[in-house]
Amino acid sequence: MGTWKQVVASEFIEFNPKETLKKGTIAPKISMDILAPFTRKVSSYTQESYNGGTKFRNQDTIMARITPCLENGKTSMVDILPEDTVGFGSTEYIVFRARSGISDSKFVYYLACSNVIRDIAIKSMVGSSGRQRVQQSVVNNIEFMAPALEEQKRIAAVLSSLDDKIELNNVINENLANLLQTYYQLSFGDVDTSSKKGILSDICCFSKEKISVSEIDVNSYYSTENMLPQKGGATEATSLPNIQQTTACHAGNTLISNIRPYFKKIVYCQKECGCSTDVLCFTPIQTCYTAYLFSTLYADRFFDFMVAGSKGTKMPRGDKQQIMTYPIIIPSADELDAFNCVAIPILKQMDDTRSENSHLSAMRDTLLPKLMSGEIDVANATV
Question: Coil, helix or strand for 329?
Fold first, then answer.
């Protein structure tokens, strides 16, 4: 084990570093909703007018400071901004920046994800129920043992190799989903010019079944919290609901978050699972429609339709009756058979990739506290 010494967080990390961004400036915004639980990569950003909020640059870590976002693991490392650009986001972020010559930016990210920071930050929360916030002064004064800079880089390299593979798998799945969508469009054409028109309710309905929460686990429960935006699938749930029953979903069902549908959160079920009331579970009326239904709902055109019919301003929700009027093509049995020969193996490969990511995440989470405490020695490892 290399040389470790006790440090104070504010001496090791620059919190909420000062950056200049004039009000009214159009700049990249990373909203809280974009952050995926316990996921390093920020999937996207929007260009919006700056009127306040935390400011950050690439290589900074942003961590939610409000409940339940912090407990749900909303901590990510910014790496998608244009070069030399200042971005902004929620006032409910704490920004972590590595200090030059003292700390490594990737090590700082994993430190923020570890119980070294998380446990104390969560225990420091004060405020009214449901709106509790981390006390910044407490985080600033956290004391912990830290290795020298080169060993920090070695530790971060071990953990990053797992996150790199997870991110690569996500890209593979995105490409497979886009391939499936292309094949779907080539197979069935444009609904506007088709003579075999129908509506969504002709091939599916919403699940009304219930499943006991005791029969599911964090890998088979879906809510708006662990479903990822921009068709990114889902992560493991951080917890199960404190209720006896929830909506039951079966293999071949498609799940879509009904809150703020413009985030395009969609999951294809490969096994028995459950979902929250804010997630719509689309159940095909026949098993032959499973892949066709998912491909229909995956299209941007469907999400545009859903957004157009949504109700509410701050937290718009899809209108279930309007959703079921979405125009579709009713394929023949032969067309479905031909489509399924290609689509079903693609969906199976996507599920296998997601399963691999679950194993990689579990491995990373097991290694994280051992590496951060020096229990596993990487002092002589090659970066």
Answer: strand
CA distance 270 to 250: 8
List pLDDT tens digits, range 87-139.
Answer: 999 999 999 999 999 999 999 999 999 999 999 999 999 998 778 999 999 99
Q: Residue with structure tokens 């093509």?
A: 329
Task: Give the pair of three-digit tokens for residue 312.
Answer: 């509410």
Contacts with 325 (C-beta within 8 Å, 6 or more apart), sequence order: 199, 200, 201
| H or E stretch at 88 | strand 87-89
Q: Which two structure tokens, joined as six digits, stand for 377?
A: 């020695």
pLDDT of 326-337, one tens digit each?
999 999 999 999
Residues paired with 354 in a beta bridge: none
pTM for the predicted model, two decimal places:
0.89
CA triple 354-109-84, angle to 5 deg: 105
Question: For the chain, which domains are there?
Answer: 4-147 (3.90.220.20), 173-344 (3.90.220.20)
Task: Please tell me what DSSP assigns to residue 35.
Answer: P
